[in-house]
Amino acid sequence: MGKKHVNPFVKSSFLYVFASGLGQIMVLLGVFLFTRLMSEKDYGRYVTYYSFVSVFAVLIGTNLFESLNNAYIDIKDDIIAFRKSVLVLSSIIALSVTVVTLMISVFILHRFSAFEVIMAAIHSYTFFVINYRMYSANMENDYKKKMLLLSLPNILQLAISLITVIVLPDISYEARIIGSVAGLGIIAVLSYIDIIKCPGKPVITKYWKYALKISVPSIFMSISYMIMQQCDNIMVTNYCGEEVTSAYSVVFYLGYAMIAVNAAVMPVRQAWLYRKLDKKDYTGIKTLQKWYLILFAFLATLVIMFGKLVLMFLPSSYRHSEYIPPFILSACMMVLYGMFTEVLLFHKKTGVLSVMVSVSAIINLILNAIFIPKFGAIAAGFTTVFAYFILFILNKIGADLCIKRLYSLLYSAAFIAWALLLAAVFYMTESHEVIRYIIYSAMLLIFAIIALVKRKTIKEMLGSK
């Protein structure tokens, strides 16, 4: 009897989801702990700081990790030297961006303290280095390193932040920043050394030009992505106050659990798709889309079903369950438009993508400015959903211009309809717990029936075939 094999795509995806899940458990545990250890104001200040870090992270590394996926195809024979040289380039850029930002923010605008700017710069660059090493590990199918990079940073961030906040309770905001930077910094330093010690010249200008040609056009796109994802926290703070931002951002992590699973699997899926597109072999792509969306429809049902129960573990001031549906809808739209984004990235249409994301970000900013003052933080959740839907439409049009009907519109429409149904059920049964659980249980039963009916297909997908 022959040895049974597991589909490598499925195997790596499960391993990455497990590692990412472990990391997200640390994030959620951090939410439960820090909402008790920090005042609402300090917690809200940290959320706003973290939003700026997320945007700053794009500038400080110039998105140079975006060039790695293409380089592993175009420069595969000298990829080690490429990887080392481009990392050196990122260090030069990071130092330059930090100096300029420090001068503008502290000495001209007087908006942030020198402590906040320097820590944000280090924080952002650690994100970049970890991402850079993670992209490389993914293209090399280095499961062990990828799993460590998905879980260890969050574990260390939680552990060290917890110590610093307990030791320095009077300055919990600053203590949380120091702990987060230290936790990420340990992994970033080890990742940096791992790459820089490899053979190859530290400066290879032709590789710098190649990397910048791909990465620089994506900066505007990534900043727009970050603005769209993070502007809610910043604008809610501006219009509603830091205490409201605290509750808003805490509920966000329920939707982020789905985004984290997608982020863990996405590099594997992207590497598989790139190789398919490179060979012009389009078989199996629609099948992957169908089962991928079924999986995330199942996850969305689970998260929205038990979301209110999770919030019961938080202090009462954070239990704003009305935020749950828009965050679930946003996560679903991110999963959906991401599939079309990868097609455009493969064809190096970063300029086109930048325009599309910018349009969506501007729409989000305008709608936030109009509706947050009138309806509060809940409006920010739904304006983001609408902006993501616009981005999905634009990305689909762009992807179809590259390769017509690579993905099924019917599968996408069914996924959106399911997500909207989940949100509608939540609001209609918000005060009727038993009815809500019965309806969601019935919806979960549909997935069980699909799994039973299609068990042979699923078994083949999980196998070496």
Reconstruct the topology from this structure.
Elements: H1 8-37, H2 40-60, H3 66-74, H4 79-108, H5 114-139, H6 143-167, H7 172-196, H8 205-240, H9 242-278, H10 285-311, H11 324-346, H12 350-375, H13 377-402, H14 409-428, H15 433-453, H16 455-462
Helix pairs in contact: 1-6, 1-9, 2-5, 2-7, 2-8, 2-9, 3-5, 3-8, 4-5, 4-8, 5-6, 5-7, 6-7, 8-9, 8-12, 8-13, 9-10, 9-11, 10-11, 10-14, 10-15, 11-13, 11-14, 12-13
Poorly predicted runs of 5 or more residues: none
Tell the overall outline. globular
Helical residue percent band: over 70%
| Helical stretch tally | 16
Distance between the termini: 17 Å
Largest β sheet strand count, sense and barrel closure: none
Strand content: under 5%
Question: How many strand units?
Answer: 0
Number of domains: 1
Radius of gyration: 22 Å
* Average of per-residue pLDDT values: 85
General description of the model:
This protein has 465 residues and is an all-alpha fold. It has one domain (8-462). Helices cover 84% and strands 0% of the residues. The chain contains 16 helices and no strands. It has helices at 8-37, 40-60, 66-74, 79-108, 114-139, 143-167, 172-196, 205-240, 242-278, 285-311, 324-346, 350-375, 377-402, 409-428, 433-453, 455-462. Helix 3 packs antiparallel against helix 8, helix 8 runs antiparallel to helix 13 and helix 12 (350-375) runs antiparallel to helix 13. The radius of gyration is 22 Å and the shape is globular. The mean pLDDT is 85.
Primary descriptors:
globular, 84% helix, single chain, 465 residues, mainly alpha, 16 helices
